[in-house]
Amino acid sequence: GETWIAEVLLEKLPLILPDVTLYMSPNDQSNMPFAHLLGWIENPTQGDIPFTHTLKEVVVSYNPPVVTVFNVKEYGRRHLRTLEYTSNMSLCLHEVAGEPYPDRVGGVLAMSGGIPMTTVSPEPSLVITRALTSEMGTQTLIPSRFMAGLIPACLV
Q1: What percent of the chain has pLDDT over 90?
Q2: Vertex 140: Cα angle to 138 and 145 (nearest 5)
Q3: What is the pTM of this model?
Q4: What Cα–Cα distance (Å) separates residue 108 from each residue in 41, 65, 131?
Q5: Which residues have C-beta within 8 Å of that of residue 50, sequence separation ≥ 6?
Q6: How far apart are CA 141 and CA 85, in angstroms?
Q7: Which strand (E) or helix (H) includes residue 73?
Q8: CA neighbours within 13 Å on the CB side: how many for 28?
Q9: Which of 34, 96, 131, 135 minimizes the number of CB atoms within 10 Å of its CB?
C-alpha cells in the first residue's frame, strides 16, 4: 500500500519539520512515483500582528527516496511554490540556497540542501498579464522564484 511514504519520512520528517502534521489526498498513492503532502507551521509572532501560518508542500519520491519541501506563497491571489529544501541535490531540478551537507533518506546517502523550516510573511504582489492575440489568449508572468524546483534550472 502506501507504506512507502511512511518509510521514506519515518526518520527524516521529525528532523526537517518537527511538530508538523502532514495531510495527504484521499486518493490511493500505492503505485504513484511520488506523493504530495501538505502541512503548516506557525510563524513567529511579530508584535501586534496576529498569528499567521506558512503552508508547506512536501513532495516524497519513491525511487530513489527523496523529500522536497516547498513553501506555498500567495502571490496576486494565486498560490505558488518556492523551493526550500531537498534531501538529494543531484535529483533536484534547481539549486537550493545554503551549504549542502551529507544526509540519509530511506537508506540512501545523498547531499541535502536548504532550510525546510523557513516561514513566509504576507507581502505586496503584482500580477502582470498581456493579451497579444486572441489565439494565444491571456499570458501571465510567473516570477522565476516560483519556477525553481518545478522545471530544470536552465529554463528558469
Answers
A1: 44
A2: 165
A3: 0.87
A4: 27, 7, 48
A5: none
A6: 25
A7: strand 66-75
A8: 3
A9: 135
Cell numbers for 90: 543531484
Q: Which SS3 state, helix, strand or coil, does residue 16 take?
A: helix
The span from the CA of 9 to the CA of 56, in Å, is 15
Bond prior to 64 in cis (omega within 30° of 0): yes
As a whole number of angstroms, the distance between CA 57 and CA 40 comes to 8
- The alpha-helical segments, DSSP class H, found in the chain are 3-9, 13-16
Contact 80, 86 (CB under 8 A): no
Q: Nearest Cα to 46, choosing from 138, 148, 136, 121?
A: 121
pLDDT tens per residue across span 103-152: 888 788 889 999 999 998 878 889 999 999 999 999 999 988 898 888 88
Residue with cell 503532502: 37
Q: Please state the rounded mean pLDDT for residues 63-73.
A: 92
Q: Say if CB 105 and CB 88 are below 8 A apart.
A: yes
In whole angstroms, what is the distance from residue 63 CA to residue 57 CA?
A: 19
Cell of 98: 545554503
d(CA 132, CA 13): 46
